[in-house]
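Quick one: structure for this chain?
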Amino acid sequence: MEKKFKRTLVTTALPYANGPVHIGHLAGVYVPADIYTRYLRLKGEEVIHIGGSDEHGVPITLKAKAEGITPQDVVDRYHSIIKKSFEEFGISFDIYSRTSSDIHTKTASEFFRKLYDKGVFIEKTTEQYYDEEAKQFLADRYITGTCPHCKNERAYGDQCEACGTSLNATDLINPKSAISGSVPVLRETKHWYLPLDKYEDFLRKWILEDHKEWKSNVYGQCKSWLDMGLQPRAVSRDLDWGVPVPVEGAEGKVLYVWFDAPIGYISNTKELLPDSWERWWKDPETKLVHFIGKDNIVFHCIVFPAMLKAEGSFILPENVPANEFLNLEGDKISTSRNWAVWLHEYLVDFPGKQDVLRYVLIANAPETKDNDFTWRDFQARNNNELVAVLGNFVNRAMVLTHKYFGGKVPACGELTEYDKETLDEFAGVKVELENYLENYRFRDALKEAMNLARIGNKYLADTEPWKLAKTDMSRVSTILNLALQISANLAIAFEPFLPFSAKKLRDMLNMTHAEWNLLGNTDILPEGQQLNQPVLLFEKIEDAQVEAQVQKLLDTKKANELKNHQAAPVRENIDFEDFMKLDIRVGKVLECQKVPKADKLLQFKIDDGLGGRTIVSGIAKHYNPEDLVGKQVCFVANLAPRKLKGIESQGMILSAEDADGKLVVVEPEQHVKPGSEVK
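Got it. Here's what it folds into:
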């Protein structure tokens, strides 16, 4: 039997404040959560949406150190960017706060202390790497070395990003401190551990027996973790950035970020509702739903519930509808490689098009498996669906009403069989949408909403009111009344998905209210209601706009390749006598021209100090001939002549190949006499 709740508490994974938000975050977490929250609000249900920035942990300290600023400077910068981006994009948080707030520090400290006083934690002394130069213990991310699996020389102490293997810092070959570059030593240190193994039976029953309705990807990952057997997990860290461990003898130690961050949901609710927060966290009639990405499943389904169970007074999540990952143009989104579509940049490049991105991300949502975002698909969905289907239908209904009825809702006369068939098609849309939305199937729900617009488009195309206007205005009146009623239904159905466009549509229709329970009705707009002037809901996205975005990604890929470029290995050694046989000289370019029917070749006339010579060189793709005239170049003077395209080449001009494949001619730093030897 389905449980009944009085209210719903929606939380979204706290984005890490060491970079902006990208489309992977939006598709995986924030757009689905916003749809769900807006839907519940539209139904008139009591719901709050809690968000905030995760501002502790090692990556933030590393970024601060690299930039020569404080960790607080880093999180202040990115918290501001993230919060502003979410606001502009229409993610409707009731609060968006942060884990560096005083209220969070207090809440997390009290939570830890309660578990500590109850004797929940295990105290353990272990050996960890210590940097004797920097005089501090090293978190896993502060240690680099060679991966024992793939031999990548830049692996971290917790993971090798080249092969994806999880590591312990002690697994690394030739470990080095990322702070000082010195070789770290092992030293003893004390930490507190949450004994997850003690909660294994509880978790097994709670998830595997009581929550079989969870999404298959979530349920499967939880089962895999439980079947492997849970182990105690450290809740503290040797670090100076974070919430201090609130017990004596814990100086220089902070709460591990995975323990501290989910408590941010509680502290942010406290900040929003200081007098009634417990009703949302401790009343069993509250439904708690965590929206997260798949990399956070273990923390929200196993670790955080174990923490809440250990504390004893909090409710547990009713559902954790985690999504898989969204890829970008066939490649994994990566913050470190800048391979992403950043929300704050999108909002600048595509002003007023929040709903286009929302639509595409929902349509491609990685709900049970990874999915891919491409700019071509983005353009096609906008032009072929939003513009050609939804926008086209609404615009035709509005324009025709203004043309024939002065912009007032016309009367609905007698319905034909076709009218009734059309109305029957969307009569069940409310039930269908509710079924999908309640079960977190947002992609299917969007299709159902768009199907309403398809029904409307077909209805107008089939009835052709612009032709009937010559002979039967009463029939036109009925057709446009129904078209406008469908438009009003669209304004309600799309509100959770496309809030900006839904508001635009409501304003055009002069709808004073949009309640979910009106969905499916055919008398939402009263006869005679004055409509406002029609405006286009969507506009076409041109090839040039998309090509600019694709080029931006190609430039990023090229920059990454250059950044990671390694020089080619040195060829096998030669004898000194062989080298001495080479006669390398400096010459001045007197003439230069392209060789006919040869894309790569340039023909040079060189002043070599000995009467001149001709050299043919394959650098035409890298230089304009006129730019080389007058330059001094280095060339091999004693290379046996050879014919290229019928021209005898008497030597070879020396060029250096850059990391991106560009050839650059080698020339002396100062002017020397033609024929000078290179020693």
